[in-house]
Each structure stands twice: as structure tokens, then as C-alpha cells.
Amino acid sequence: MSIQATIERKLQSALEPVHLEVINESHMHNVPPGSESHFKVVVASKAFEGQPLVARHRRVNEILAEELQQIHALALHTYTFDEWQEQGFAPQSPPCHGGGG
Amino acid sequence: MDVMERIDQTVKNNPVVIFMKGTPQMPMCGFSSRAAQALMACGQEFAHVNVLADPEIFENLPRYANWPTFPQIYINGELIGGCDITLEMYQKGELQRMVQEAVSRGRSEAGES
Description:
- The structure holds 2 protein chains of 2 kinds.
- In chain A, 37% of the residues lie in helices and 20% in strands.
- Chain A is α+β, with helices and mostly antiparallel strands.
- Chain A has helices at 3-15, 53-63, 65-70, 81-87, and strands spanning 19-24, 38-44, 73-79.
- Chain A is built from 4 helices and 3 strands.
- Chain A has a single domain, classed as BolA-like (GMP Synthetase, Chain A, domain 3, 2-Layer Sandwich).
- In chain B, helix 1 packs across helix 3 (55-64) and helix 2 packs parallel to helix 4 (83-92).
- Helix content of chain B is 55%, strand content 15%.
- Chain B has a 4-stranded mixed β-sheet.
- Chain B has one domain (3-106): Glutaredoxin, CATH 3.40.30.
- Classes of the chains: A alpha+beta, B alpha+beta.
- The A-B interface holds A 53-54, 57-58, 61, 65, 68, 73-77, 91, 93-101 and B 21-22, 27-34, 51-52, 58, 66-69, 79-85, 87-89.
């Protein structure tokens, strides 16, 4: 299973999101075609209700602990059900600066 | 000094500090760049650590606050989060307020000692 599919499956089952996008943004970076290095996750879930952003990100980082060992970057945008109804879109990821590591 | 102590001192001795790839003037990663820009836009001085220039910190910072990614931004000794959280807080005006308060507090503490 691809890393992208694994991330989707894990978040789907752990957070039961009302909205979930897992976007492979590796093509925006200096990596070979077909790479799974840079991802963006947009997730809206009732599980985030009443939680500050840092706690929401910790939750996602824990769910994806194994995948974070394999990938280079994870842009993360977390919303409660109400925040997502209000906003409805996530910010764009930044362009690459070539730092690697 | 032990690397965890070095990190701890850096976090506690600076009202605002960013651990990033590169420097605010020459960022080496888009996420680090954006987070540093948000801090600069707050109009106060802040400390930075280039994790690419300090392999020991690069290796060990993730377990310091149990946060796996870079950049990491600390205000008043507490982890605020990474790039996405910092930007969201900046857009809401919360980051400016927190940075301002932390820097003023840092100044008054320095004045007292």
C-alpha cells in the first residue's frame, strides 16, 4: 500500500473525519518523479472539538508516527466541524527552498 | 553540556525562539521560511537556531518536546507548534500578541535582575 493510502486509512479510522484530503505534494520539491516525500493533510473532525491546534497536531503526529519516519514533510491543517463549515478550504503549502535533510 | 540541556536553556533563556532549517535571512526550507517571516512580521527580536548547522540539535530536538518536525517555535518556554500553527495564529492576530507579551516580559525580568 502506498504511504498516501496508509495515511488516509489511518486518519479515517482514528478520527472519523467529516472532511479528509491527503495530497502528495512531492512534485513541488527536488525529489524523483513518483516520490512520496511531502504530504499535505487537511482534516476536519469532531474529535478536534475544544482542542488547541498544538493538541490536534500532536494527535495527528501520533497517529502517523510510523509514516513520519518515512516522509520528509507534512503540512497539517486541522479543523473542527464548525471551523470547516465556516472556512471550507486550507492554505497553500510553501515552495521548496532546497534545504533537504 | 548535554544536548537536551542546551536545547532547554535555549528555549528558556529566549522569550521567542525558532528552531529552523537555515536562518531567517537565508531559510533552507519553505516551512521554516514562512514561520520565520511570520515572526519577523511581529516586529520584535527573536532568537533562531539553524538545525542544519547543529546536527546534535537536529537529531534530538524532536524528542525534547515530543514533536517530530521542523520548524519548532517556542514562546515563553512553551512549544507553540510548527509552521502551520504559527501561520494560523499570525492570521488571527494571536501570534503578534503572544510575541509582544513575551518580549515585554523578558525585558522587565532582565531589568529587575
